[in-house]
Amino acid sequence: MNAKRPLGYWLKLVDSLIDEQFAATLEEHGVTRRQWQVLNLLEQQPATEAQLGAGLSPFFASPDEPQSLKEHLAELVESGWIAAENGEYSITDRGHTSLLKLSELVEKIRTQFGQDLDGSEYDAVVETLEKIARNLGWEPEQDQQ
User: Fold this and answer.
1) CA atoms within 13 A on the CB side of 137
2) Which end of the chain is more exposed for a tag (fewer CB within 10 A), N or C?
């Protein structure tokens, strides 16, 4: 097929390939991509399940992972990577140490998918996608709810 493919094709393909890379890399360390994202959010500050859900809502479209944030949180609590107290979750020392190690692996993935792009090309893609999202009704405040 030599016809120019539409934006949606490339978005879904790239998203799928990124998910595959993350899954393969993080699974070896007993964590899912969503759990890694939870750890990142909790590294910034403790949060309730609702706050975490709002911050991660765009990512719960993957059929390969539990669709319930509760499942991810339960697994992270069980592993000792996060703690739950009075309805709020926080990262533990063990979770912080694991996040540092996982972040090194994630950085390698990011370097791989951006290896043929200079910084301005990558920035232009991200800025363009943000503009498209805004044109379709997305507002940055939606990520902070």
Assistant:
1) 0
2) N
Instruction: Please tell me which residue, 123 or 92, carries the higher pLDDT value.
Output: 92
Name residue, tokens 């790239």: 14
CATH of the domain at 59: 1.10.10.10
Residue by residue, DSSP assigns 65-101 as S-S-HHHHHHHHHHHTSEEEETTEEEE-HHHHHHHHH
Range of the domain at 76: 29-114
∠ CA(112), CA(115), CA(120), 5° rounding?
130
Q: Residue 123: inside a domain, yes or no?
A: no
Residue 72: both structure tokens together? 């991810």
- Indicate the helix (H) or strand (E) that contains 24: helix 7-27
Domain count, the chain: 1
Domain-located, residue 53 = yes
pLDDT for the residue numbered 62: 54
DSSP annotation of 140 reads G
**CB-count exposure of residue 72 (10 Å: 0-12, 13-18, 19+):** buried
